[in-house]
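ok so for the tutorial part 2 we go from a plain amino acid sequence to predicted C-alpha cells. step 1 is just haveing the sequence, like this:
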Amino acid sequence: MKTDKTTNPLLQGKLRDVELTVLVDSIRSITSSLDLDEVLGEIMRNALKVIPATDAGYLMLYDVGTERLLVKAPLGFNDNIYNFKVKPGESITGTVFEDGLGLIFNSKEEILKAMDYHHVSKSNFHHIISSANIPEALICVPISIEDKRIGIMITHQWHRKKVLDEHDLLLLQAFAEQAAIAIQNAQYFTEANNRIEKITQLSAQLEERNIQLQKRHKVHETLTTISLENKGLEAIVHEFNLMLNSPVTFFNVIEDKFYLHDPNEIPNFDQFELKKIFLTRRKPIHLKANHPSEKTYYIYPVYNGPVFLGCFLIHVTEEISESDRIALEQGSSILALELIKNQTVTEYFYKKTHEQFLALLNAKNDDHLETLAKEFGLNASTYWFMAIFEIPNYTDLQLLEIKIHHLVLKLKNELPKTETMIYGLQNRVIFFASITESSHFKIFQQKFNVVKEEWDAKDQHSFRAGISSTYKGLHAIKKIYEEANKTLTYLTSRNRLDIIRYENIGLNKLFLNQSPREIQQFIDEVFLPLSYPHEKKSELEETLLTYFESNRSATKTAEKLHIHINTLYQRIRKIEHVLQLDLNDNEDSLKIHLACHLRSTYV
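step 2 — the prediction. this is what the C-alpha cells look like for a chain of 603 residues:
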C-alpha cells in the first residue's frame, strides 16, 4: 500500500527539509557572483527550483526615470515580454509592488479577472499575452530592501502540477528577500566598478565600498554555512558576537527566549516590552534600558513578511558603525530562515504527538491501548484528565502558530512535571495529563488560572479552556476527550473566554447538544410576550427573573425590587395572564424556572 506524501507527517518533515536545503543552496548560488546580469539570471533559475511546481518567471525592477517596472531575466517567454512595462498599482505585478503583499492565483480565470480589476492597459495586456501562454497558476511577491520596494518576482505554472498555497508563497517571499540582498550587492558592485573606472580621485571611497561589499558577502557566506551545517540558533548568535564590535543579544519571539552573549547576564528588556515596541514599528530603534542598567541599546528587528520574529539588542555608546549595520542587515535574513526552519520542526513534532493521541483514542481494545501506552511511555493505570485550550480570535495564521507555541511553552514551564501529551493543533493546545491521585488536580486548576491571568495581562489574544473530569485508567480516554470538547463547546456557545471543568457546567450539560437557535427560541417564547415595544427588558421580565432567583419568595422578591408585596402579586398575576400559565402548576413552574436559568446563562 502506497503512503500519501501529502498526509504523512514524516514525509512532510523530510519534504520541508528538502525545501529548506534547496532554498539555502539557491541563496548561496545567487550570491556567488556580483555581476548584475548574472545575478538576475541566477535568481530566476533558482526561483524555479525553490517553487518546482512552476515552469517560468521573470523579475521586474522599478525604474525611477520612467516610473515603470521593467522586466529582467525572463525564463519561458519570448522577447515581447520586454515590452511589458507597468506602473505601480497596474495589473497583478504593479499591485504587488505598490501594496507590498504577495498574491497567489490558481486558475486562468482568476488571473485574467485580477489583471482586469487592477486596470492593465490594452498595450500591456497585449504584450504579456503575446509573450507566452496564459498560465494555469502564478505566485507574485515583492522584492524589498528593508522598507523600500525595488521590484517584484513572479513565477508561472503552464501545466497543472499542484495547487499553489500559502507555504509556496512563504518560500518564494523568503527567497525574494535574499534575492533583494543579492541584487543590491550586485548593484553596489557595478556602481563601485563604474566609479573606479571614471573617477580615480574617489578611489578611497570606492575601496571602502568594496570592503563593505566583501563584508556583506563574507557575513552572508559564513552564516549560510552555519545554517547548512545545522549548528543551530546559538551558533549563529555566537557568530554575530564575533563579527560585531559590541556584545549581541538576540530575542527569539517564537520561543519567547533571550540568547545572551553571557549566559549569566540578566536580560535588560522584558519580552512583552519588545513585542509591544515592534507591534507597529519595523525600523531599528535606539532605546535606554530601565533595568537593571541605564545602558543604551540599538535594537534591530527581524521580520518574515509582516510577522515579527525577534530582534538583536546591541549595547552602544554612540551610533552603530557601518560595518556592524552591514552585518546585521546581511545576517538577519539568514537568522529568519533558521527561525522558520525551527518552526517547521516544531510543527512536525506536534503532528507526530497528535498522531500518537489519535492512536490511543482509536485503540481497538484495552490490551491494544496498554500496548500503545507502553510504546509512548505512558502509565495506563493512573488518573487522567484533559484540557483543551483555544485561541478563538485570529487573522494571521503564521502569527497564530507562534501564539499557540507560546501557550505550549508557558504550560510546560508553569505546570507540574508529570506524564503528559501536549501539542498545538490549529488554534488549539491539547493537554492530556496523568496524576497519581485525583485530588492532585487542584494543583493543576490553580496553575491554569495563573497561566490565564498572566497571559491576559500581556497578550491581546486571549484563550478559553475546557477541562474534563478526572478518571482512573487510560481506558476512559474517549470519555475524557468528549467531556473536554463538550466543555469547550459550552464556552464557545456563550462566547466566554474562561477556564471551566466539565462537572461545573451543571444543568447546562442537558443543553450541550441543542443548537443556540433552539435555546434562544425557547427563551423568547417566555420573555418576548413580557417585553414592551422598543424595550430590551420590561418590569415584568425583571420581576419574573428576580422571583425565581429568590426561590419564589414573595417577601425577598419585593425587597429586591423595592416594591410593595401587593404590587408584586399584581405583577405575578399579570405574568400568568400574559403567558397563559399557572405558576402553581408544577409543569408550568418548571418551564419558567428553566427559561429563567437559560436566560441568565445564555443571553
